[in-house]
Design a protein that fits this description.
2 copies of one chain form a homodimer. By secondary structure, chain A is of the alpha/beta class. The first copy, chain A, has one domain: Rossmann fold (3-Layer(aba) Sandwich). In chain A, 43% of the residues lie in helices and 20% in strands. Chain A has 6 helices and 9 strands, in the order E-H-E-H-H-E-E-H-E-H-E-E-E-E-H. Chain A is globular. At the A-B interface, strand 4, helix 4 and helix 5 of A face strand 4, helix 4 and helix 6 of B. Chains A, B: GO terms for molecular function: FMN binding; oxidoreductase activity.
Chain lengths: 180, 180
């Protein structure tokens, strides 16, 4: 099982990166950090599709059996960097694949609109976004030790457990579809 | 009254650009075309805030009394380029200002999710997004003459008339607030 975590904050010092690194350190997953390796702005130009960086990004998502998308909430939606990354992709990259969505927000009721935005967009890419989703508030992040606070870990574990079940289910479905 | 139209497609050959140019040619508005003058990817770094391009962009929005945001729908949401542009802005740029939202979509039921995404994001920026909104399908665009098809023009006129009323209302509110 090949799982890709996309940390989709454009800020190198953001809390989203902490979540991405936590997942990388806790599970057998690959991490793509859009702050450390930013994608160019999507233009739709054919030359862009030929760039090594874009070919590599598309291949990584294509090769993944499941994708975890972690984004900060900016202005009631996923980051522009997150949406821009998804603009390079199509249903070919997501069909019959599980996706899990996590949002870093500022507290209060924040984060829910970004989750809704991500779910709608991933639906239009034909991903199977799992029902469990989560918002991580500043209180959930242990910045000093670059990890998560203990209290939030069981919720992340529950989400990841569900995600791996659905990722496996997607693998089975794609296998069945390939057989015809 | 100072009105800014943001054409928020990253594609130079897109239909969104046609809409932007139509508005520029039909009304007393300024046009900012994000395909012709792309913004960098937002990083939150202080150096970025000091760049002339970002200072100029922020000032244009700050000086506007009302903003028309035109975006293509990509994957059930506004373009990454549109969201990335908004990530540079805050409620300081939008409070007590009217915004109008228009989306270029591929036909069928397309475009509605992007309008919802734009409205939610502009709400979080404290803009007053007017009730009338519209989707422009390929059938509404006269690519050959780089303009709109005649049939859709009355709907655009209705939207713009409402938008100008609300933009004027916003001017009055800001004036009253400034007096205290």
């Amino acid at each position: 099982m090949n799982v890709l975590v996309i940390s989709a904050s454009p800020r190198t010092i953001g809390r989203t990166g902490v979540v991405g690194r936590y997942l990388k350190n806790s599970y057998d997953v690959e991490l793509m950090d859009l702050a450390k390796n930013p994608l160019p702005l999507y233009t739709g130009e054919p030359a862009q599709a030929e760039s090594e960086q874009i070919k590599d990004f598309r291949k990584k998502v294509l090769d993944a059996d499941g994708i975890v998308l972690v984004s900060p909430e900016y202005h009631g939606a996923m980051s522009g960097a997150a949406k821009n990354a998804l603009d390079f992709l199509s249903a070919d990259h997501f069909r019959y694949k599980a996706t899990a969505i996590m949002v870093c927000a500022g507290g209060g009721k924040g984060g829910i609109n970004a989750l809704g935005n991500m779910r709608t967009t991933l639906r239009s890419l034909y991903a199977n976004t799992i029902p469990t989703q989560m918002v991580l508030d500043p209180v959930d992040i242990d910045r000093e030790n670059d990890t998560l606070m203990e209290g939030i870990v069981p919720k992340v574990q529950g989400l990841m457990e569900e995600f791996f079940y659905y990722t496996q289910a997607g693998i089975e479905i794609r296998k069945a579809k390939a057989k015809g």
